[in-house]
Structure formats: structure tokens, C-alpha cells
Amino acid sequence: MADVNRGNRPLSPHLTIYKPQWTSITSILTRITGNALIVGSMMIVWWFLAAAAGPEAYATANGFVTSWFGDLVMFLSTWALWYHLCFGVRHLIWDSGHMLDVERSELYAQGALVVATLMTLFTAIVL
Q: Lesser CB count within 10 Å: N end or C end of the chain?
């Protein structure tokens, strides 16, 4: 039979005592960046389709993609791409059974954040 005293039970305190970890935060951010890459991809696809559609459509799409907002989206998409790559490599390492301990896993998370940021700056400046 169902418990009729639901109001008398204490709530779980997990949200008040939980301390976010590098691995959990980066895992969540990997999922977010994976979905956010769709926005940059759709902008690029729109740009290519507009180029094929004609000069007026291309001028509109190019004006948006090369605006400050388009540049920001492309820059953040570049960071998301490098970030997603670095943490995809982390999952390949985990799948091989390596770096499963907390210390090395968190160290990799911190290092991969730095690498993704440096590779984004390299891509934006040099390329």
C-alpha cells in the first residue's frame, strides 16, 4: 500500500551539500557544447546555401555571419569544437581503462580546458 505519511519524511539534502566536481561540470559542459555546435553549423550551412542562391541572399547571410554577433558565435563555436574534441579524447582514454582515478581525471579536465582555450586563440589569431 502507498505511504500515506509523505509529508513527514525529510527531504534529501543532496542539493545543499553537493560540491560540483571538475569531472561532472566538464561532462555537463561537453553535452552543452555538443548541442551548441549546431548553431554555428547552421550558420555555416545558411551561408553556403545563400551563396548558391544568389547575390542578394549571399549579401544578407554574409552580413549576418560577418557581423559582431556572427563573429562571436563563430569564435565560441571554435572554442566549443576544440573543447568537445579534448573531452572526446578523455572519453576514449576512459574507454581504454586509463585515468579513471579522481585526481588524474580532474587534472585532465583542468588541462583540457586550458588546451581548448589556447587552441581557440591559436585558431583565431593564426588561422
A: N
Which residues span the domain enclosing 90?
A: 21-126
pLDDT tens-digit map of 24-42: 899 999 999 999 999 999 9
What are the residue ranges in the chain where pLDDT is below 50?
none
29 assigned to some structural domain: yes
% pLDDT > 70, the chain:
88
Report the 10 Å Cβ neighbour count for 6.
Answer: 7
The number of folded domains in the chain is 1
Which helix (H) or strand (E) covers residue 110, if one does? helix 102-126
The CATH number linked to 61 is 1.20.1300.10
- Give 116's Cβ-side CA count (13 Å radius): 26
What residue type is 106 in one-letter code?
E
pTM: 0.82
Which spans in 18-101 are helix H? 22-53, 55-65, 68-95
Angle at 24 between CA 11 and CA 27, to 5 degrees: 130
